[in-house]
Amino acid sequence: MLILLRNCFLVDGTGTPGRQSDILIRDNVILDIGSFSNARADRVFDLGGLTVTPGFIDINVDSDHYFTLFTDPGQKSLLAQGVTSIVGGNSGTSLAPLFGDGILSLRKWADPNQININWGSFGEFISWLNTRKFGINFGSLVGHSTIRRGLMGDSLVPLGKNEYKKFVYLIEQSLREGAFGFSTGLAYSRASHVSLEELFELTKSIAKGKGVYSCYPKEEQGIEQGIKEVVSLAKENALVTEIAHLSTPASDDFRRGLERIEEASHEVSIHFDITPYHISVKPLFTLLPTWATQRGFDQLLRYLTTSDTRARILNDIDTKQKEIGDIVISYARNQWIIHGKRISEVALNQNLSVAETLVKILQISENQVGGFIVDSDQVLRDDLLFHPLSCISSHGVGYDRVDTLNRPKIHPRSFGAFPRFLRMVREKGKISFEEAIKKITSTVAEKYGFMERGVVKIGNKADLVVLDSIEVGEKNDFENSAHYSSGIVMVFVNGVLSYERGNFIDFSSGEIIKPSFY
After folding, report:
1. Which of 102, 166, 300, 431 supports an S-S bond with 150, CB 3.0-4.6 Å?
2. CB-neighbour burial class of residue 32 (10 A; exposed 0-12, middle 13-18, buried 19+)
3. In the predicted model, what is the mean pLDDT of residues 355-369?
């Protein structure tokens, strides 16, 4: 099929000034760019000066972690934002390779029993995905915790010589089979014990541009210390590095950490990804002391139900009562009735202390509980959206259906992160619209090795967004999160018109993608 987009304002993703243009699309590829006033096509769209950009690339999503990649394959809440490609496997947890107890690394987000696992290796996972239909393009990193859990089970002991050999083999095999890189979730208690020596040996597999290293850094000893460790790995192994889920408190500790990132950027490719919200969703077991959580969910459940360890946990979190009470429950397994309620509200109804309520919720839900937590200074985070080293991601989840009774309380980022960012660009004026589009397209495409995506140019895949740059913005909030944004007029995925003015026309045109170094 030949499609003509006529009379558009093209912002091509390179950061150069936009220009008036027409675009010809043949099948899934951009055929030509120029002036085609007399051209004929199967479909012609006169855009009347609306802006055309590359499809947005979201490098940090949880659609795989929450399994909505399978239950909601259209990923409509992301598609309607202009997102055409996503990267899973973040925070040390991926859906492949799976063996042993590796699947248990996903329990912090969802119940692994929801899906049937028909694969083992990363290549088998990709092959299985290729038998399915998705609304957007999907690629994945390979997760450290997933492999380590498969090799070592619940054990926290250092890797032995044979384990190192197997671990490296699995990373390198996954890269050959199409993984975009390697991720770690060091902020989570089970991974926080991992030594720098272990990470140094494992990240050699992706050294010198063989893949991206995405790291959710440790925070237990301060953000600067966590960033310091990531930077040392990046420099030592010449890693293409993405610091994920960066918390941005207004503290000297954070500012020193940011300076370390800025200094390292002169030597290696290093960025950090953030979302345009200062409130995040986190598993609530992370509020408990490390000694209680680092040996896994089964041991934690035993601690929660044993009187002496339960009392010790309650004592250790006593000083966090105000922080805990303000948390709004996003999801809780077996307890959908408390979705959207503050823990302090649940505590009042149960006639328990806030700490006791948290422990009870964790116990009943078998630790599968998440909540909205303020983890960043809003003014500082807003400024960092425009930092030259920041990448914008949703940290969200793709949904097709939102009216199911026991669905989680959805974070508005899953429906509005990218339009919200573009609205803030327009209102604050700290960077140009062209620079903003580059941040969410070609910058991440180049870093992650996206083939033929991220820039509107002849021969690239026709992942395109048509938008009204004056109207684009989110239309939701934390009370009413499941609302699509304004200003996103059309979205093309691989040359197929998938979304137009609030209507989903096709949500099966996504591809399973591999990096350019594959």
Report:
1. 102
2. middle
3. 91
The three-state secondary structure class of 466 is strand
> In which residue ranges of the chain is CATH 2.30.40.10 found?
2-53+467-475+484-504
Going by pLDDT thresholds of 50, 70 and 90, the confidence category of residue 113 is confident
| Continuous segment of H or E residues that includes residue 243 | strand 240-243
CA distances from 450 to 302, 355, 395 (A): 45, 46, 19
Tokens standing for 59?
Answer: 């490098």
Asked if residue 456 lies in contact with residue 12, where contact means CB atoms within 8 angstroms, the answer is yes
Of 344, 368, 206, nearest to 284 by C-alpha is 368
- Distance between CA 64 and CA 134 in Å, rounded? 12
Task: Delimit the CATH 3.20.20.140 region(s) of the chain.
Answer: 56-278+375-452
**Secondary structure E strands in 119-161:** 137-140, 142-143
Q: For residues 501 and 490, give the distance between their C-alpha atoms in angstroms, rounded to a whole number.
A: 6
CA dihedral 83, 87, 88, 92 (to 10 degrees): -140
**pLDDT number for residue 193:** 83
Q: Phi-psi bin for 119: left (phi > 0), alpha (psi -120 to 50), beta? A: beta
Given a cut of 80, whether residue 108 has pLDDT beyond it is no
For residue 454, give Cα distances in angstroms to 81, 442, 513. Answer: 16, 4, 13
Asked if 347 and 257 count as a contact pair (C-beta separation under 8 A), the reply is no
- Token readout for 216 is 């959710």
Residue carrying structure tokens 């105000």: 322
CA distance 196 to 217: 12
Q: Write b or e for each residue in 267-280: b if 16 or more Cβ atoms lie within 10 A of its Cβ, otherwise e.
A: ebbbbbbbbbbbbb
Residue type, 38: N
Structure tokens at 380: 């500082």
Angstrom distances, CA of residue 295 to CA of 50, 144, 154, 187, 217? 54, 16, 6, 15, 19
So what's the pLDDT on residue 366?
Answer: 85
Residue 479, amino acid: E
Backbone φ and ψ of 274, nearest 5° = -140, 165
Which architecture, in CATH terms, is 56-278+375-452? Alpha-Beta Barrel (3.20)
| Amino acid at the residue 412 | P
Please state, in angstroms and rounded to a whole number, the distance separating the CA atoms of residues 296 and 104: 9
Q: What is the per-residue pLDDT for 101?
A: 79
Distance CA 361, CA 335 (A): 8
pLDDT of residue 405: 46
pLDDT in tens, 303-343: 999 999 999 999 999 998 898 999 999 888 878 889 889 99
Q: Are 492 and 463 in contact (CB under 8 A)?
A: yes
Tens digits of residue pLDDT in 213-257? 999 998 878 899 999 999 999 999 999 999 999 888 878 999 999
CATH H superfamily, domain 2-53+467-475+484-504: Urease, subunit C, domain 1 (2.30.40.10)
Cα 283 versus chain centre, distance: 15
- Per-residue CA distances from 433 to 43, 255, 319 (Å): 29, 27, 45
